# Entry
Amino acid sequence: MCRLILAPMATLSHEAFRMAVEEFGGADEYFTEMIHAPSLITMGPYEKYYLLDGPVPEKIVWQLTGTNAESLADAARIVAEKDGIGIDLNMGCSAPQIYKTGAGISWMLKPVSETSRMVSAVKKVLDEYQDKSGIHKRLSVKCRLGADDFKDDDFFSFCDMLVDNGVECITLHPRTIKEKLRGLPRYEYAERLAQRHPGIDVYVNGEIKDVQSAKRAVEKVPHAKGLMVARMAAQKPWIFAQLRHGLDGSGPDSLTVDAKKLALDFIQDIQERQPKEFYRTRIQRFFSYYCDNFSFGHYFKMQLLNYHSIEECVEKINSYFEKCPDDMFIKVY
# Structure
């Protein structure tokens, strides 16, 4: 069976959220939220929170974002010393505030020689770490198809360059820079990539949100080594258990989620593992998805998006389930 991967998501793929996912058996790999290389190098007041690696450090993939080879290589030296599977280079983020600075998908649009130099610089850091420690750390890249007018030859030539520079795993979200979430991903490109480079792992990302869609992705990309799940993991932190059960019958015979406990545990973990300055964005982002599970989800969501204190947030959660006891337990399968 394919590995099941938690996607890197800003304000979501942090330690407190990973704890919620791991409670149900978890993912095989946890990509961190984007770590801004220049900020990490200067070790500002919040960077230590991006370096938290719980609850299972051995499953962590550190995703770095940045605009130049030097800062990404310097950041790689920092995270290479941490536990985990390896380093991922963000070449797929198409948010304007990211790619217009020269980060994210911009690396697919720059001169290939510039991107090649950056990848080579990061790979050199990992090779030096392996020579020193005897521990191999994987280099991976998460990317898209490129610009809206991309050409097949250019895309596959770009991936050839990545592999030539030591990239061992490519996660492909097979949409272009402006397609965002419109339409189904073009999974055929992931399959072609996997067949072109059988020596690396190809993970597929995009529209994997339940057993049916996961089976469709596996059917379209039979040579994929991993399925990456993004937003649906926030709505349903138990989705990896659900996928395992639906795809190969593994895991518990049945699964029922205590929805209230999960919500309150998440709030507690946020307080213990995030700075106060991050509480609001992390809580709002999680509950904007999680509340879609419930009968009066829109009302519940609005209550939690507009809270004024942690105490009020907890009160609103308790109040909702007192009024809607039938939503307390979710029968997954």
